[in-house]
Amino acid sequence: MAGTAPSWARVGGDLAGGFVHVNGASHPLFDPGSLAPSHTSGDAVVVASGRDRFAVNTPKFYQADKYGPADVIASDLHSLGAGYARHPGLVQLFFPELIGTCVGTASDGTRVDVPCVQVADIDQATLNDRALASPAMGYLKVLADTLRSTGSDLRLIFILFHLGAGASTDWDSAEFDAIGAAPTHAPYADPLGLRWATDHFGNTIVDGLTGATLAFGVAGTAVNAWDRYTVDPANPYKREVYRRMGLAVGLAISALADEHGLRDIIAGVEIFNEIEVFHAIEGDDGKLHPDGASWGDLYYYVAAGLLEGCDWLPLWIPGIASYNDTARKVTRTWDGKQEFLDGILRQLDRVRTELLLGGRTLEMDELVAGVDYHYYHRKAGETQSLLYLPVELAALRQVLTRRGLQDAKLTVVESGVNVVCDGSSPAPTTAYDSGCESATDAWAEYPDFEAPGTATTDDRPPWYVCGTGGVTLEGMSVAPANDFQAASLWKRFVAAMIGGADIIGWHTHLSNNASSFAGTGLRRDFHDKDVSPSIAAARPSWFAFRRIVAILGGIRSATLLNPEPEADWSHEYIHNQLAAGEFTTTQLAWVVEFDGARLVSTPPVGPSIAASWWAYMIFVDDTADGAVDPPTCAQARFMGYDITEALADKTVYRVATGPRASDLGTGAVDAYPPQTWSADANQRVDADTIDMGGLRVPTWTVRSARGNWPGLILCQQRLRLLEVT
Question: pTM (2 decimals)?
Fold first, then answer.
């Protein structure tokens, strides 16, 4: 790849989304006379700062029997430095709260309560009463009051209607076992399940936006499985029902907003989640594709209802599920994800001019305030290089920008790495590492299951240590699961910053061993109900999250210096280059420059020693999913940025990214345990000198190894990358 390629940096403010090229980011050894003046014009500005940049996904508020009290969770998120809680437990509305339940029969013959839409339940007055009196609204009021009384600035992004993967509407759930295989209705397939009472057949309702009279069945007037048991975004009758539900929720929020300060804590209402693989439509190629048009119609109806009831709500389109390019279905691939986003936005842009709200055309930025891009890719067979993430975010940003949504938030909050593993991990080697979190550390054995992101032995790299003089030592054959999770958090957060993510986060805060996300939490899992939160010690990933906020929370820019990106990089290009071995070993060592970092004292989160520093990080892209293996050890050498500074010595600190140990105290029954982390103190980095044109020029080196923590140095003056080896 060309050595003169520009580097990438995220543009904020009023400029178009994507990347700009920053000159002079990386050079081989050269004559000091060729040094360009240091540019200070702020080529790349990241406008978010501090807590506004970080989130935790799915903190389980109001499920204290498994996750702890709500005020304890909120306090812990504040301690982490998270500004947002996405999908905050029971503080969001699900179908049963609005439409009631019917008695169903599970596969074992037992009677169960399942969501079921009744004709009598869809008149607006009944829906309004149900929304206002729903448990979710009660929880929202209490949480809002708690946050205000404690001075917390935590904000919420919650789902309205939890459709999609893992929801009760997923046809794979037990609620639909007795019905059999999912129905189809050409050209549609792969539906989401929702029971509709048989009284709907033959019934009509009036469309609140068009005034048209709508009949229920689209697959026939007789009772049939498609109409009775599916969500069906292409059904106009059902869309009107969902619109009325949205109106009820909007009215409830509006009624409670002033008394409970809801404007200050609601950062987004996400309408549905991970739905692009469902209700697919057959394309001209005979394959099932995402039906962006039908989902766009349904989204608009719900959005119109919400905004009619509460006109200040920021609305988010459905979170985009993590893709799998080895899947046979287009809907699950990267191309399918782009197709869905483009399709739903195109439909919104069209329908908003046709279906007015109160005689007014809604603007696109009223309909779309943000979208979360989900990024797991740690499941067996699905691991991949982090090089994909920045280019995918750039591609999604372009899709948003084409529809006038350059200011919409593009986030990577739902991302995680699992520490549940197969028991063959090496024994704990540090005071905080717990291996596979199994019987080896006196914790109950995890069940044998395949969870998203499970960090099996095969999916974790070896643990290398960089020695002096170019010596590389293999510390362990497999990186310890907890260390690997925490180091991965650093790397994923930084890759998302490079890609221009407005908010970056982690899934999840705390889980339990019965969950499909066991082992992903920043805290140790509960292993049973009604267990004291005092056992939920923080994992090293908790430390890493807090450390990142402390050091990088206020940065103005993040620039990728190595590998040097080409302007035409894309998902397909990265895939082909990796497969062909065109990326060299050195190019799989990332070097990143941050402007506006903070040098924090030890303990790891404390007062800043100086307001603004330049930070330089190196880490190895651990995943060997191409023809070239990542380096076992990599180092980056830096010098002063321009000729006026090149010969001057500088104060450069090496800052620990990982903890050295953790002292765990005994906590109260209803609180997480007190925990004191210790890390290596900031160390002054002595300069080496090299000969450049007869001059002795000071340089500074930072190292990292495969499977290990990133290396990080900070300096108050800007540095120039000389080489990566």
Answer: 0.89
